[in-house]
């Protein structure tokens, strides 16, 4: 990570007797894009509001750009926040909405006009919109105006609280692309709260997974997806296979596993394919659905196999999702379609499913 712009250390937040954040620590690098994800009520918005200065932490320290933020009001911080629910002034035009922070800062009219127009162009909004009121814009356009207003004062950090959740799928896609471009071009650090995991994976340099007021894991999308710290993170970030196994750690750092459903000549995985907290005894063997394949005659033998019967399948455009019943469990298998209409298996077919050692990861139950 580059030099941190945000350093949140041991942040506790109590609302009355309810503790919403339990000693949360998170650093965000200068120019970095971090997504906060986690189930509803886990404390994402509380953390964002503490960074923005809309809530004070009960305990802990927050530094932004090296300065302690204790007692610094929201307006005095180098941060701006964009909310899920639009916070545009309904009775002000687009020009006055975007220009509002500049007016507060006493920026001369001519410079303000130039900056407002530059923001409009950056957000791909027509200058003819300057005289319109928010109600005369689509939801996506309103969010672009809200982004323009947040960015016009050139903050070091942009805080985004589910800015796209009220938009339809198509608008959402275009605004996501816009955000990615903005981030690339501006050098501003972004912290995005989102429920949409695909969005987090697509946009963020690092993802912070929270649960019940705690940070469970912070990592790149690939670390979170392929090396989750526990079964909760694994299941939260995408569909996955979690096979119950009994394990024994070996002297050389590798781990041997046993499962009645899985056949393998040498059932061991290297130490780097085991989550740090895993001890011995029972554990879960994770294999992502797209790392599983049907075993066919003549193809190289996989590391391990399971036998079952195809229960159902769904064609999802370029790929196909199979659910294979193995000893009472439905095992998801996702494969790319080869471009032919011939499917690799039909419902009711007996199949052998295989996967490679490099695609295994062992987690605590
Ligand atoms: N002002 C408040 N007073 C009392 N409790 C609050 C207040 N704000 C939030 N909470 C509680 O704190 C917890 C965390 O809320 P927060 O809004 O930070 O969660 P979240 O992860 O952003 O949730 P969501 O994804 O649903 O927006 C929740 O249980 C919520 O009910």
TrEMBL record:
<dbReference type="Pfam" id="PF00005">
    <property type="entry name" value="ABC_tran"/>
</dbReference>
<dbReference type="GO" id="GO:0022857">
    <property type="term" value="F:transmembrane transporter activity"/>
</dbReference>
<dbReference type="InterPro" id="IPR017871">
    <property type="entry name" value="ABC_transporter-like_CS"/>
</dbReference>
<keyword id="KW-0547">Nucleotide-binding</keyword>
<dbReference type="Pfam" id="PF08402">
    <property type="entry name" value="TOBE_2"/>
</dbReference>
<dbReference type="InterPro" id="IPR008995">
    <property type="entry name" value="Mo/tungstate-bd_C_term_dom"/>
</dbReference>
<dbReference type="InterPro" id="IPR003593">
    <property type="entry name" value="AAA+_ATPase"/>
</dbReference>
<dbReference type="GO" id="GO:0016887">
    <property type="term" value="F:ATP hydrolysis activity"/>
</dbReference>
<dbReference type="InterPro" id="IPR027417">
    <property type="entry name" value="P-loop_NTPase"/>
</dbReference>
<protein>
    <submittedName>
        <fullName>Spermidine/putrescine transport system ATP-binding protein</fullName>
    </submittedName>
</protein>
<dbReference type="GO" id="GO:0005524">
    <property type="term" value="F:ATP binding"/>
</dbReference>
<dbReference type="InterPro" id="IPR003439">
    <property type="entry name" value="ABC_transporter-like_ATP-bd"/>
</dbReference>
<keyword id="KW-0067">ATP-binding</keyword>
<dbReference type="GO" id="GO:0043190">
    <property type="term" value="C:ATP-binding cassette (ABC) transporter complex"/>
</dbReference>
<keyword id="KW-0813">Transport</keyword>
<feature type="domain" description="ABC transporter">
    <location>
        <begin position="6"/>
        <end position="237"/>
    </location>
</feature>
<dbReference type="InterPro" id="IPR013611">
    <property type="entry name" value="Transp-assoc_OB_typ2"/>
</dbReference>
<comment type="similarity">
    <text>Belongs to the ABC transporter superfamily.</text>
</comment>
<dbReference type="GO" id="GO:0015697">
    <property type="term" value="P:quaternary ammonium group transport"/>
</dbReference>
<dbReference type="InterPro" id="IPR050093">
    <property type="entry name" value="ABC_SmlMolc_Importer"/>
</dbReference>
């Amino acid at each position: 990570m580059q030099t941190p712009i945000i350093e949140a250390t041991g942040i506790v937040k109590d609302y009355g007797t309810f503790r919403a954040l339990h000693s949360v620590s998170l650093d965000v690098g200068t120019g970095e894009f971090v997504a906060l994800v986690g189930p509803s009520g886990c404390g994402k918005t509380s953390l964002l509001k503490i960074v923005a200065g809309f809530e004070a932490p009960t305990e802990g320290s927050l530094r932004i750009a090296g300065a302690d933020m204790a007692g610094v009001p929201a307006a005095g911080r180098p941060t701006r926040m964009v909310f899920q629910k639009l916070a545009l002034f309904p009775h002000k035009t687009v020009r006055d909405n975007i220009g509002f922070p500049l007016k507060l800062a006493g920026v001369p009219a001519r410079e303000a006009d130039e900056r407002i127009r530059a923001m409009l162009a950056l957000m791909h909004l027509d200058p003819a919109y300057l005289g319109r009121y928010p109600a005369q814009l689509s939801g996506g356009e309103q969010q672009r105006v809200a982004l323009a207003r947040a960015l016009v004062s050139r903050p070091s950090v942009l805080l985004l609280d589910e800015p796209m959740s009220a938009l339809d799928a198509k608008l959402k896609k275009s605004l996501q692309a816009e955000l990615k471009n903005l981030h690339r071009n501006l050098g501003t650090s972004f912290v995005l709260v989102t429920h949409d995991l695909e969005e987090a994976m697509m946009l963020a340099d690092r993802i912070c997974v929270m649960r019940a007021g705690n940070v469970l894991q912070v990592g790149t999308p690939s670390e979170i997806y392929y090396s989750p710290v526990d079964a909760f993170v694994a299941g939260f970030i995408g569909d996955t296979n979690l096979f119950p196994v009994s394990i024994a750690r070996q002297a050389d750092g590798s781990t041997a596993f046993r499962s009645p459903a899985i056949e393998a000549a040498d059932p061991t995985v290297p130490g780097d394919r085991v989550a740090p907290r895993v001890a011995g005894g029972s554990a879960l063997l994770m294999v992502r659905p797209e790392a599983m394949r049907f075993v066919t005659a003549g193809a190289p033998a996989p590391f391990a196999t399971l036998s079952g019967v195809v229960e159902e399948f769904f064609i999802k455009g370029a790929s196909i999702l199979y659910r294979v019943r193995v000893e009472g469990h439905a095992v998801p298998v996702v494969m790319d379609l080869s471009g032919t209409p011939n499917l690799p298996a039909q419902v009711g077919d007996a199949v052998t499913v295989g996967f490679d050692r490099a695609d295994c990861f062992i987690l605590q139950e």
